[in-house]
Amino acid sequence: FQDLFGVSMVVPLMNLHIKSLGASHTVAGIIGSLYGIMQLFSSTFVGCWSDIVGRRYSLLACILLSALGYFLLGTSTTVFLFALSRVPVGIFKHTLSISKALLSDLVSERDRPLVMGRFNAASSVGFILGPVVGGYLTELEDGFYQTSFICACIFLLNAGLVWMLPWSEENTGNREHQQGNKETGSFSAKANRDLHLKSTTNGAMASDSLFQSPWIQVATVLKRIKGIACSDLWDIFLVRLLMSVAILLYYNNFSLALEERFGVKPLFAGYLMSYSSALGVLAGCLLGPITRLYQHNTYRLLLHSSTLTCTLILLYASALSIWMVVLSSTFLAFSTTIGRTCIIDLELTIGGNEASGTLLGVGQSVTSVGRIVAPLLSGIAQEFSPCGPPTLGVGLALVAILIMNANKEKYCSRGNVKLKN
After folding, report:
1. Cβ-count burial of 150 within 10 angstroms (0-12 exposed, 13-18 middle, 19+ buried)?
2. What is the pLDDT of residue 304?
3. Tell me, what CATH number does 4's domain have?
4. What pLDDT, in 10s, does the model give residues 121-160?
5. Segments in 296-421 forming alpha helices (H)
6. Which end of the chain is more exposed for a tag (fewer CB within 10 A), N or C?
7. Can you tell me the distance from the alpha carbon of 365 to that of 374, in angstroms, rounded to the nearest whole number?
């Protein structure tokens, strides 16, 4: 929550700040693209590195270096300093991916969608509140600089919280046992013993790997990435890419499309997007009952949510009134939140928790590719019609659904084996 609260205070104000420094639209666009490219290439390496040295040290390093980036942003009085401040953030701002990998280490496979849903809900709340506070602070004198320093302090506070967590194996085992008894009761005694044994083994391996030479760590990272690249997970990552591009095509130029099609002011579009974000929080909290309704069959839930997403984007593309857009946005907030959580759970189920950081890093890189490709496709499609981008998104979502249907046996057989184990 604090991570995305701090970031969302600053990010909406960055274009205004770089223009106030005298940068042109082209320079601002280049700096934004460079940040995306750094995220694309670094997420896989940082995620794999967290598997090798352990979650604690990798998470601390990412938080502290991100804090440094936002501190530099708070001192950026020239375009060069602004660009320089984006470098550590672009390379090391993978705190959410490592946190998800840590959660997948701590919880059982059956409880993972529920916990990931709550994690996404907390993140969404931070993203809803952050822009409001940032907009208020920027009204003050030197507001952007103050906002950046506050964001850096929030990251330092997060680093302190990570350092204070009970990382020793004995404390971790006791904490999990108490949570199992007092809160959910979802972990049996055997599951606690298994988890305690796994955390002890992982802790020993991480402490050994931390003191290895950097060259050995780099070689290990490259070896793990090669293993993921040569695995049979290509279809899952392709589904993730297609669905992410389809959703981004829906949201790209959303305000402009509503104005051209229905004469709606951008303010209404902003309210509609905030409304969708709030519903996304509710969807994250409801993931537990939904997964129980589907008997923890992540593949079937992902297939149904993707089909619903495709149908809702088609409804938006063919909408004749603004109320049909509101209806599609309402249910799309639920289907996209559920689908995003399910695709991560399916990656970890089939790929295995042993390389959860690497898998999440590769998935983040795939999403970054979608963020780079989607604006280009959206601009080309909008040349033909305001409904062009969502119509193209419907086609991509259909391809993703066909891929999932074609690989149904692989998903179901592996998922059942994993749950039995």
Report:
1. middle
2. 93
3. 1.20.1250.20
4. 888 888 888 887 887 887 777 788 899 999 999 999 999 9
5. 298-317, 322-351, 356-382, 388-406, 408-420
6. C
7. 14
